[in-house]
Design a protein that fits this description.
- The protein has 3 domains: 75 residues, Dna Ligase, domain 1, CATH 3.30.1490; 80 residues, Dna Ligase, domain 1; 143 residues, no CATH class.
- By secondary structure, the chain is mainly alpha-helical.
- It contains 16 helices and 6 strands.
- α1 crosses α3 and α10 packs across α14.
- A hairpin with a 5-residue loop joins β5 and β6.
- It has a two-stranded antiparallel ribbon with strand order 1-2. Strands 3-4 form a two-stranded antiparallel sheet.
Amino acid sequence: MKKLRLLLFATLVCTTVPAGILVYHVHFSVPIDGVHPAQIRVDQGDSLAAVVRKLRDQKLISNGFLFSIWARLSGAEKKIHQGLYQFESSAPPREILDRLVSGRGTFQTVTIPEGLTVKEIATLLDKMQIADKENFLAEAANPSLLTTLGLHEKGLEGYLFPSTYHFTPSTPEKEIILTLAEQFRKISLPLLNHLDGANSLTPHQVLTLASIIEKETGIDAERPLISAVFHNRLKRQMPLQSDPTVIYGMKDFTGNLTRKHLNDPTPYNTYRIAALPPGPICNPSLASIRAALQPAPVSYLYFVSKNDGTHLFSETIEEHNRAVKAFQPVRELSSRRSKSPARH
């Protein structure tokens, strides 16, 4: 009987003491040599061991073995969310594990610049490890998603609003697209849906024109002037002759636009087609949309780059030819493009 009591006591000690150590560690133990703020990224497919290793490398926990045991006993081993987590101060292992399970990662701020294409947005998000580029592009072309957004026939280009957003790496690509598209719907769509009677373009055509304006100039004061050139040309059924549209229609652009490219029969070649291209060539700013809706009251038909980011505008071909000679004296295509309103 005495031996039995000793055995029970020993068993109790052997189980209670480790349990007490484990409970104390996960609830109260904090590394004394931690450096803050500390940040870890939990990637998709990371095992518990990989997560523990990252936590230890950042000195967020002192005992990876006890942390792993607690994660398994609490059923949290398979519930850790991927994401980017930032810890501003030391915290007990229990609090750290709770954050990983709840997915309360830190948000990454990303600014989508004006004038980016859908592909360029995907590249930017991939570079910041917020989204996977291929998954983003696949969702961007998903017929079901496009139908949900009312863009089944139009496509997504032009309908993602350039702005600053906050995402975590665990945000699905579909949700990112919906967020950008919703921002467009809230800010840009009201302008496009209230066209005055003087504008013969549809909202989609206005957005298309705005995207060309966006690519042609980065100077706010010039946007209405660029818009006027293109509106005047459309009224006269003249080709817009915009280099950015040609480039958008090319599969691979190396940075050197040649005469051959300007003869390529793509729907976006505004040197061959005397009309707007079928859709936007980028995601334009609100300023460019306003300019497309409200062109300056001028008769300009041409413009040429002054090589300082601004342009010189002309009403006649003779004026334009003189401007080209002054600002672009040596160009392989200068004689042909003297009739072009596009940037030189």
